[in-house]
């Protein structure tokens, strides 16, 4: 936990990293805001359902709207749900009926993947360069984008392959066996085991990818392939600490979400002024979540680079080789 | 185990007491056995107070009665049996042949109509080696002893599929005249399939349904004996069933089925004879599993007859027993009041194990298959997996299938639609709002913050059923999804009717229909006739359009505005002189000119109410026949319009888009702003999650 706390301290002392994340996520979501707002105003402003949607939101309104306007989202919610269904999703074919804002969301997600690589390059590069403003994030992110994009896309491809070959394929292979299990408990245990295997493997990929990213930044002196190996080696060498940092980040983010749901801030947004306050509170939440995220990356970096147990020594001439 | 076909059927236990209406006495054979005369009279009197008409028509005249003796080989999933069929020709012309259902031949191979229909709809049924089933008639003799088997041939009256063997016909040596009763002895061998649909085995579990040669229905139009189809259920005449099943001893006490278990008797070879009897039913099904937990609870309620409820469930579902019994009792109570007392002494519920899901949620006379997950939340009653809703639905079928034995092949909406209506109405009364469920890695997560308000959510649940497929015979629907119309569309029509005539009148309609047509084969026309008689209004046109039309119903307020009435301008005549008047600015306090446009966006015109609400709480209500595509309501000068609604009380639940049924003149962006903010926030968080995954 100490590494995560240390990383959190760095994140709080250098909030420009979290601000960068907040700005990027806000900018991406803003693309959806206008068409979404137009749709909602057209559907609700004169509708008797409008006041009810504030006091006691009824799922029927939303379901009817989706049936009446199938082009609005397409089957995005169903396709997303199929990913965590018992059987799992066969692949991209599940998303071929996504349309409208649903398709836009997927497009923004893909753009977000690229921007995420950019942000991580900026954050990890900025931590190394000890920069104190957003320009450092932009500069370091741009410098490291190609290398980080390769890691991101590689990790993504690996994650998709793991999902397909571990979760989905096992579901297909065991479908007959599962259907013949005479007890519900056994059938659920089987799904749980498949899901647990998936989560463990995805966690390993995540840890390895983050360690490689850190190695790419911290060891520019090494040949490219060696940096990858060093990154993986460093993650394996301090696996427990890195995993603990990941766990604390996940737990703290979930706790933040839980607190948000308990506070039920949305219930106060019954007037225009209330909506303004709601938006402000939401953005504070997003910013705090970004602080935790930067805390994780800074914490992992601290874990891996801590001199006493570092699996590799810091370079003699940091960053200059890349300058 | 042959039976003596010369031996008459034994008298019905506890039957007909001279001092009572014989019909009422037979209605409660077990209650009369278990209760003393005084108690019995009290039950019957109370029942008659609740529902005097229920007993006027009495029980069914036995048309097709069976005495069956069979031996169950659980290792081979095989049943060898003999049945003595006593059949009465209730038609108006002589019967020159007999037609039998041999339903389990639907699972004999992949050439049956059932299998082909599923395949053509993209629902291939995977059947492994040793998992096929079937039924073979090995002997068929008339009471005279004449062997009829050589004349047996398979026919396919619905689709002409020469390879379908689910209906057989045999020519009779002599016609059976109208009113005449004949007896036949049939020997058969049934091999249960691995549960593919409704019937079969899964491990040690077996649900044995549609398992014996069963005669069709002979009426004025001849034989009504349909094949087993992908999406259809059954149709049969009432009769009495006396069934003795020879099973291994380890199944002793682990059986349940239609009617009453009268006797369990030891038999040679470490076996047990289970003797069941059921009167005035039209089918017999049973279930067995050596691991079943068997529990029994009585249902008591003042004014309703006592019913013994037996539940057979897997050991891991012991925690669900209380929910099963509570749901069954609530259903017997409610339906007993709505549709008349449940007339049988017993109700058996089986909870099939998860490897027999295809047997879940099915009705047989006095016997239903539930189906539940121990993890599925009780609050999500609108989901098909809901334990309570399934029990309510299948017990509703005890009326709309069991007692009102409509032709499920040809008018499936009469059983499924009424059962769905009953289920949703009861569950809404019992539980109120439902909540959606999202399965996450197989574990159902209930979204308790999202409400599905009944009864409008009835519309949501069946929304997808509002397709452009017309209602038709069960096997003629394009897909299984469009077959869902028989559930959803009829339920919506009934709920709409209830909202139009009021709950009290609707209850009278349902009670009259359910009691007058008890132990008969009612049709849609019968029901519409009851509706017209009770309400005193013609309803045929409504049903023709709402139920049988292939179109969609959708009314909308397209526009509603109210602005100051324009003062005169231009060349106008004032005091006999024509002069040009300059347009003057609007005067404060003047009247408003109102325009409202109502559109019929769907294909189906139904009479609909329109309500305009003006300032000062003044309202104007009118009815539009809906024939035109749109109608404009115009007020030259009057108070300012506040809102306009079409179908303001939500009576037409068939309306495909109720979101457009109203228009508030003064725009209010609060809801849209709130949901924009929320959606923006969700988008930020979901995008973050999406980005972090890589």
**Lateral arrangement of strands in the main beta sheet of chain B:** 4-7-2-1-13-16-15
Overall pLDDT score of chain B: 88
Q: Summarize the helix and strand pattern of chain A as letters.
A: HHHHHHHHHHHH
Helix content of chain A: over 70%
Report the principal-axis shape of chain B. Answer: elongated
What distance lies between the first and last C-alpha atoms of chain B, to the nearest angstrom?
69 Å
Category by helix and strand content of chain A: mainly alpha
Count of helices of chain B? 15
> What is the total tally of β strands of chain B?
33
Average pLDDT taken over every residue of chain A:
88
**Uncertain runs of chain B:** 1-58
Radius of gyration of chain A: 22 Å
How does the helix and strand content of chain B classify structurally?
Answer: alpha+beta
Radius of gyration of chain B: 30 Å
Alpha-carbon distance between the two ends of chain A: 34 Å
Largest interface: A-B, 78 and 72 residues
Assembly type of the shown chains?
A: heterodimer
Strand fraction of chain A: under 5%
* Major sheet characteristics of chain A: none
The poorly predicted ranges of chain A are: none
């Amino acid at each position: 936990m100490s590494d995560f706390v240390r990383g959190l301290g760095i994140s709080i002392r250098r909030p420009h990293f979290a601000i960068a994340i907040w700005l990027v996520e806000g900018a991406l979501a803003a693309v959806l805001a206008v068409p979404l707002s137009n749709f909602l105003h057209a559907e609700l402003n004169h509708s008797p359902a409008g006041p009810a949607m504030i006091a006691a939101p009824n799922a029927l309104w939303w379901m009817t709207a989706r049936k009446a306007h199938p082009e609005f989202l397409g089957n995005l919610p169903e396709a997303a749900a199929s990913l965590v269904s018992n059987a799992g999703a066969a692949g991209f074919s599940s998303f071929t009926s996504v349309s409208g804002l649903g398709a836009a969301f997927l497009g923004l997600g893909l753009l977000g993947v690229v921007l995420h690589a950019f942000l991580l390059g900026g954050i990890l590069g900025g931590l190394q360069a000890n920069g104190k403003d957003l320009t450092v994030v932009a500069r370091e992110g741009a410098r490291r984008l190609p290398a980080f994009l390769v890691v991101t896309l590689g990790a993504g491809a690996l994650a998709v392959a793991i999902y397909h070959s571990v979760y989905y394929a096992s579901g297909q292979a065991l479908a007959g066996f599962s259907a013949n299990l005479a007890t519900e408990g056994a059938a659920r245990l089987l799904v749980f085991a498949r899901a647990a295997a998936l989560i463990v493997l995805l966690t390993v990929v995540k840890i390895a990818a983050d360690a490689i990213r850190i190695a790419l930044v911290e060891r520019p002196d090494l040949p490219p392939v060696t940096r990858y190996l060093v990154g993986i080696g460093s993650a394996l060498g301090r696996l427990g600490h890195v995993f603990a940092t990941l766990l604390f980040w996940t737990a703290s983010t979930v706790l933040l979400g839980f607190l948000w749901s308990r506070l039920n801030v949305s219930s106060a947004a019954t007037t225009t002024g209330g909506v303004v306050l709601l938006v402000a509170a939401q953005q504070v939440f997003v910013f705090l979540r970004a602080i935790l995220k930067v805390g994780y990356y800074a914490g992992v970096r601290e874990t891996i680079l801590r001199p006493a147990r570092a699996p590799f020594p810091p370079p003699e001439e940091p960053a200059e080789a890349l300058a | 185990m042959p039976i003596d076909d010369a031996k008459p059927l034994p008298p019905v236990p506890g039957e007909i007491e001279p001092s009572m209406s014989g019909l009422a006495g037979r209605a409660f054979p077990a209650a009369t056995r278990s209760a003393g005369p005084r108690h019995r009279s009290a039950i019957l009197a109370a029942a008659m107070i609740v529902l005097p008409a229920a007993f006027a028509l009495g029980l069914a005249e036995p048309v097709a009665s069976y005495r069956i003796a069979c031996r169950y080989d659980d290792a081979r999933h095989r049943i060898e049996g003999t049945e003595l069929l006593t059949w009465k020709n209730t038609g108006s012309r002589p019967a020159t042949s007999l037609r039998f259902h041999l339903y389990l031949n639907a699972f004999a191979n992949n050439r049956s109509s059932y299998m082909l229909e599923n395949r053509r709809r993209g629902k291939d049924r995977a059947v492994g080696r040793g998992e096929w089933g079937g039924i073979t008639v090995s002997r068929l003799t008339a009471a005279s002893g004449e062997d009829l088997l050589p004349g047996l041939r398979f026919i396919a009256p619905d689709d002409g599929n020469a390879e379908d063997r689910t209906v057989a016909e045999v020519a009779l040596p002599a016609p059976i005249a109208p009113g005449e009763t004949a007896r036949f002895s049939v020997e058969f061998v049934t091999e249960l399939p691995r549960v593919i649909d409704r019937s079969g085995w899964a491990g040690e579990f077996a649900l044995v349904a549609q398992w014996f040669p069963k005669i069709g229905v002979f009426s004025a139009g001849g034989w009504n004996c349909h094949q087993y189809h992908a999406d259809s259920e059954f149709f049969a005449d009432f009769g009495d069933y006396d069934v003795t099943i020879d099973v291994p001893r380890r199944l002793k006490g682990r059986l349940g089925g239609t009617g009453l278990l009268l006797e369990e008797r030891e038999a040679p070879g470490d076996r047990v004879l289970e003797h069941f009897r059921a009167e005035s039913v039209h089918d017999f099904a049973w279930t067995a599993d050596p691991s079943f937990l068997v529990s029994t609870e009585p249902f008591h309620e003042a004014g309703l007859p006592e019913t013994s409820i037996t539940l057979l469930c897997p050991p891991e579902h012991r925690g669900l027993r209380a929910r099963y019994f509570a749901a069954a009792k609530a259903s017997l109570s409610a339906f007993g009041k709505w549709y008349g007392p449940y007339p049988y002494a017993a109700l058996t519920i089986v909870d099939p194990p998860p490897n027999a899901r295809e047997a879940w949620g099915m009705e047989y006379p006095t016997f239903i298959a539930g189906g539940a997950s121990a993890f599925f939340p009780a609050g999500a009653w609108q989901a098909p997996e809901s334990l309570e809703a399934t029990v309510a639905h299948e017990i509703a079928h005890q009326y709309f299938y069991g007692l009102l034995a409509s032709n499920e092949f040809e008018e499936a909406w009469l059983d499924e639609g009424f059962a769905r209506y009953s289920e949703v109405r009861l569950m809404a009364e019992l539980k109120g709002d439902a909540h959606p469920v999202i399965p996450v890695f197989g574990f159902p997560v209930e979204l308790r913050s999202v409400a599905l308000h009944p009864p409008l959510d009835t519309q949501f649940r069946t929304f997808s059923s509002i397709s452009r497929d017309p209602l038709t015979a069960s096997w003629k629907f394009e897909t299984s999804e469009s077959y869902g119309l028989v559930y959803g569309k009829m339920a919506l029509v009934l709920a709409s009717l209830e909202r139009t005539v009021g709950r009290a009148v609707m209850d009278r309609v349902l009670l009259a229909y359910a009691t007058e047509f008890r132990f008969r084969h009612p049709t849609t026309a019968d029901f519409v006739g009851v509706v017209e008689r009770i309400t005193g209004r013609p309803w045929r046109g409504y049903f023709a359009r709402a139920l049988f039309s292939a179109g969609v119903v959708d009314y909308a307020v397209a526009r509603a505005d109210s602005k100051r009435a324009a003062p005169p301008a231009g060349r106008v005549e004032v005091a006999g002189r024509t002069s040009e008047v300059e347009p003057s600015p609007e005067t404060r306090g003047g009247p408003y000119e109102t325009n409202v446009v109502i559109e019929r966006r769907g294909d189906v015109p139904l009479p609909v109410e329109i309500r305009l609400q003006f300032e000062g709480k003044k309202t104007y209500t009118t009815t539009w026949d809906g024939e035109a595509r749109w109608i404009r309501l115009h007020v030259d000068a009057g108070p300012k319009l506040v809102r306009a609604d079409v179908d303001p009380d939500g009576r037409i639940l068939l309306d495909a888009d109720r979101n457009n049924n109203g228009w508030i003149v003064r725009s209010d962006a609060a809801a849209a702003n709130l949901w924009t903010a929320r959606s923006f926030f969700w988008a930020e968080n979901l995008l973050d999650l999406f980005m972090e995954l890589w």
